[in-house]
Specification:
This protein is 37% helix and 19% strand. The chain is an alpha+beta fold and 154 residues long. It folds into two domains: 41 residues, Arc Repressor Mutant, subunit A (Orthogonal Bundle); 82 residues, 2-Layer Sandwich (Alpha-Beta Plaits). A four-stranded antiparallel beta sheet has the order 2-3-1-4. Strand 2 and strand 3 form a beta hairpin. The chain is elongated and about 55 Å long. The model has no long low-confidence stretch (mean pLDDT 96). This is Lrp/AsnC family transcriptional regulator, leucine-responsive regulatory protein.
């Protein structure tokens, strides 16, 4: 799909202001509402806009501790990795799971929890019992000067 300047503007604005009305969006990009709405629908149907979400305030939910966890596996087989990925996907604390290279770890997880006690429970009762987990190294976020989900639109 080819994108022009209007599509790029729509994508940039929508990912930052997901609840913007079509009228406001059309005004922001200097396009009339009907063609603006057609473009948004076309972007949705093409899969470029994958969905809409509400971003919640983690602190107000009592989730104050973010950890990046490096996981080393005992065996590097598709079965072992598939099993781990299936288990991890079931944990609501896991925000992201990445199979990585260039590290001593196989996976990098981003986890959000209430506090250190909650982290200990997650680590001992959920993460380390997964068959194949051979090593765990955790780092805790002190500050997040940049924290965005918006993708760069070029």
């Amino acid at each position: 799909m080819q994108f022009d300047k209007y599509d790029r503007l729509i994508l940039d604005i929508i990912q930052k202001k997901g609840r913007i009305s079509n009228q406001e969006l059309a005004e922001a990009i200097n396009l009339s509402p009907s063609p603006c709405l057609r473009r948004v629908r076309q972007l949705e149907e093409s899969g470029m806009i994958a969905g809409y979400v509400a971003l919640l305030d983690a602190r107000k939910l009592g989730l104050t501790l973010v950890s990046f966890i490096q996981i080393s596996m005992d065996k590097h087989t598709p079965e072992r990795f598939n099993h781990f990925e299936k288990q991890i996907a079931a944990f609501p604390e896991v925000l992201e799971c990445h199979l990585v290279t260039g590290q001593s770890a196989d996976y990098l997880l981003k986890v959000i929890i209430k506090d250190m006690d909650d982290f200990q429970r997650f680590l001992l009762n959920k993460l380390t019992p997964i068959e194949g987990v051979a090593g765990v190294h955790s780092s805790f976020v002190l500050k997040s000067p940049v924290n965005t989900r918006a993708l760069p639109i070029n």
